[in-house]
Amino acid sequence: MKKRLLSLLVAISMVLTFLPVSALTAAAAEDSSNGELKIGQDCYPVLNNIPHQTVNEHDIYTGDGWTYDADENCKILTLCPSAPTNYDFFAIHVGHSITTDCNLVIGENATVTDGNFIASVTNNGTIKGGIFKDAVTNHGTIIGGRFFSSVTNELDGIIENGQFGDWASSYTVTNNGGTINGGTFKEMSSIRSTGSVASGYTLAAETPSVFSSVSVNGYHNSCYIIPNQASVSVDISYRFDDTMYDLPPLDVTIDSAQHMLLSDWCVSDLKIEFEDIRGVYEVTFTAPPANGSTVTISPLTRLVIEKSGYPAVAQDWNGNRANYTGDGWKFENNSLILEPTAEKSYDFTSPDLNPHRVAVNCSVAVNSNATITNGIFLKEVTGSALNGVFLKVPNGYENSAKKITVSDNGKITALKMSGDTTALDSAANELYVVGQPTGTLYVTLSSGKVREVQLPLTADLELQLNDPAPKPEPEPETYTLKVMGGSFTTGGSDALTSGTVPVDAEAKVTLNPDAVPEGMVFDQWTISEESLLGNPNVAYNAESFTIPANAVENGKTVTVEAQYREASIEDDGPGILETAAMIGVAGTGVAVLGYTGYMIGTELYLNTVLPAGAAIPNNAGELALLLWEAAGTPAPAALLPADAAPVQQALAWAIENQLLAPDASAEDSVSRWEVIRSWNQLKG
């Protein structure tokens, strides 16, 4: 009978869909009623003043965005607005009735937000809420509601959320190629699918020993949940009979392996409320994802420190912390008491005991079987086996504790080790490190600075309130270089004729050919800096040479000037006439160093540095003898004849020591600059 009724429902819906709009609305246009949908006291649409006509022997009433087939075997209300429209069937009821007893077809522009529906429903639009007591066929979208009978999700149907079935029924959701992305179900087997079904998990809640029962989303103590972005909600009810009990802290276990507090699993939207009339604690939250197939919520017995720094403990009906006893510990009168029956160590920085690794914010009493191995403690701690960081020095540890203070009357405002930072209720002057805690302690000071302290400490420690003032950057070391008749570059800089050069940088000096006077050619460079004279790396007679890095002292001024000679003068020096010519040219105002000035300057320098009475060499043989004798006439490495003259020995030795060119012969002439360079090279 039900299948025939559903078939008829679909057929009539199709007939109404294909009827011309004019045929359905003509009578309404002639009537003064606005055609508003109302559900009467008899739980059916109010049809007074609603125009109607007979279609295929069915009385069809047409209102504003809805039609109703009043045939005794149909009684079908169709929502068919031309634009998106929400329908709250509780709001459109007149009288005291609250149910809608006719069959319902929801058009694609219609959204049902609430109501209590007794008969079958076909959804082509959207269901956001409501109670559905009979079969539902879904071609649209379900994102909420409570369904107490079978649901068929067709190929074009999508289920995002909702509660399907109840604790007493065995109704199923049949997925005929549609999509199920979320919702709560009595059990996983309630879904019969040939389409796409997102993964979920079984959520089970254990009944605390003093409570009478527990239910999850109106089922017994478990249900199957497919969580999604549509925010599938969970409501767990803990009931007791006559005596009012505190609700114990709740622990979560995923596949018997992963353990966490319910408050950590649910993150921020966990609510626990007591309903006095029903005598239940309602625990509600949005279903999170779970990396497993079974999630079990049970009374907590293990010791866990929650984000507040207190143990996770029972809650009374006013929402306050209540005394609670766990496995080897208890919370009593706002104090944590460690009382294991056998020896046990407690590391209050471990993620199992302290998931957020916060400072312990309540008093702690430690009995003889318990040892604290690490942690931060902001209140009084008593016991004989303590290791950790304490805001108050424990009794008996006054002499052995290491004190942490802050310079310049600074304060300590927050602490952390490996987890979340705990702000102190009031700033502290000092801390105490007791025993051998390990790890890094991060101390926030009143200046805002965070100091790292490596534990344990071997002595008292003072933390600096502020960072020391940074040392000023040293002034770069430079010297001033002036080039006349050319320019210089350093690094990638542009060519300059005057500027500063970093002491640790090379400077390349280059002749400016346009500055050479007419009829003259470049001869050599004069350099004002004595440290560069005779430096074998300074090619003073080349048109381009490099002043080596670190060859000039900081702050000095070096002047380099190009010297010229007449083009007719040979490289080995000018004669008398040429000298006169150069002096004459210099007298014309051109920057030319006369040969006589050159000879006088170099002679004065050589007379200063050479041994007293030594003649200035004119050729390589004389220069080699001068250098060889100044070095103490060492024997050359080369094999020479036994009767080799001193000049031969000296020449061989000077070439070996790179004081003369490898192909130098005794008769080769040498300039005064070559004498200066070789002599300075010998003297190092």
Report what the structure shows:
The chain is mainly β and 684 residues long. Helix content is 14%, strand content 35%. It is built from 8 helices and 55 strands. The strands form 10 sheets. It has a 16-stranded mixed sheet that branches. It has a 10-stranded mixed sheet with strand order 1-2-3-4-7-10-13-15-17-20. Strands 33-34-35-37-40 form a 5-stranded mixed sheet, with no helix packed on it. Helix 5 packs parallel to helix 8 and helix 6 packs across helix 7. The chain is elongated and about 145 Å long.
What is the number of E strands?
Answer: 55
Strand content: 25-35%
Radius of gyration: 51 Å
* Average pLDDT figure: 87
Q: Give me the number of helical elements.
A: 8
- Which bin fits the share of residues in helices? 10-25%
Give a quick account of the main beta sheet: strands, pairing sense, barrel closure.
Answer: 16 strands, mixed
Shape: elongated
Contiguous uncertain segments of 5+ residues: 1-32, 572-597
How far the N terminus sits from the C terminus, by CA atoms, comes to 120 Å
Global structural class: mainly beta
Index terms:
684 residues, mainly beta, 16-stranded mixed β-sheet, 55 strands, 14% helix, Bacterial repeat domain-containing protein, signal
Concise summary:
This protein has 684 residues and is mainly beta. The chain has eight helices and 55 strands. The chain is elongated, with a radius of gyration of 51 Å.
